[in-house]
Amino acid sequence: MSRFEDKVVLITGAASGIGKASAERIASEGGTVICVDLNAESLQLVVEGIRLAGGVADALVCDITDQSQVTATVSAVIEKHGKLDALCNIAGILEFGHSHEVKMADFDRVMKVNCYGLFMMCQAAIPHLLNSKGYIVNASSSAALGAHAWTAAYSASKGAVLALTKCLANEYSLRGLNCNAICPGGIATPMVKGVQLPEGIDRRILNKASLPDHYFAPPEDVAGVVAFLASEDARFINGDHIRVDGGLLS
Questions:
Q1: Which secondary-structure segment (H or E) carries 58?
Q2: Given phi > 0 = left and psi -120 to 50 = alpha, else beta, which region is 244?
Q3: CA atoms of 20 and 73, how far apart (whole Å)
Q4: 3-state SS class at 35
Q5: Cα torsion for 79, 116, 50, 25, to the nearest 10°?
Q6: Strand 178-184, strand 32-37: pairing
Q7: Three-state DSSP class for 184?
Q8: CATH number for the domain that contains residue 236
Q9: Is 207 inside a domain boundary?
Q10: Is the pLDDT of residue 200 over 90?
């Protein structure tokens, strides 16, 4: 497939996990991929891998919680490529903790990355996406749709992302902008693998947030959905979300 031929796609969180897999997938379909992350070393490895595979990719280091960096990042894309066809907001962080013990500084950090940073990327990109009648794909989560214990900040941030996605889709739909969200379940990413569960939990509750066989899907399974929603194949899907959870919430 070459759905992204002559398309410029910016992907946050591209240094690992779903962001990395999405960048590789879209590049394999002919897209010019702008890989954005805070981890410069890992980001460069991803870009080099895409180029070795015959794809086109650039690396831009950006802290998405810093509005000046976000603005500069989008401006750099427009200055070099002249347009932006899709924005995939995949960057995110996950922390577990007993809700009555969560420090507000930690809650705020999760919200800043998962929600505020995503919104600032949308703000900076929307004027250019209106020009191209482009696409936004936001990473929400199954945590925004069902009960997940010990993830108060994460669940709140992903619920906000889902509401924000619907708001943007409605606000800009008549101007040609398409905005949807993905809601992954258990995915085998560094973010998930590195999580620290709080002490003293009742592990029976974990069963509610995992498949019966405790299977975690590879990021590539989500990347295919990201690519679909960022392409013209999804033109008549707007303001919606797609669960990628193996039937967890079915």
A1: strand 56-61
A2: beta
A3: 18
A4: strand
A5: -110
A6: unpaired
A7: strand
A8: 3.40.50.720
A9: yes
A10: no
Q: Which pLDDT does position 53 carry in this prediction?
A: 98
Tokens of residue 118, six digits: 């995503």
Whether residue 3 lies inside any domain: the answer is: no
Helix ranges, the chain (H): 17-28, 40-52, 67-81, 104-111, 117-132, 152-172, 190-193, 219-229
Does residue 112 lie within any of the structural domains?
yes
Q: Quick check: 182 and 244 in contact, CB under 8 A?
A: yes
Which structural domain, as residue segments, surrounds residue 140?
8-244
Kindly report the pTM of this predicted structure.
0.95
Domain total of the chain = 1
DSSP-derived secondary structure for 203-249: GGGGGGGS-TT---B-HHHHHHHHHHHTSGGGTT--S-EEEESTTTT
Question: Catalytic positions, please?
Answer: 154
The answer to whether position 101 is within a domain reads: yes
Model pLDDT for residues 36-86, shown as the tens digit of each residue: 999 999 999 999 999 999 999 999 999 999 999 999 999 999 999 999 999
Q: How far apart are alpha carbons 88 and 181 in whole angstroms?
A: 9
Would you call 15 helix, strand, or coil by DSSP? coil
Distance CA 114, CA 209 (A): 20
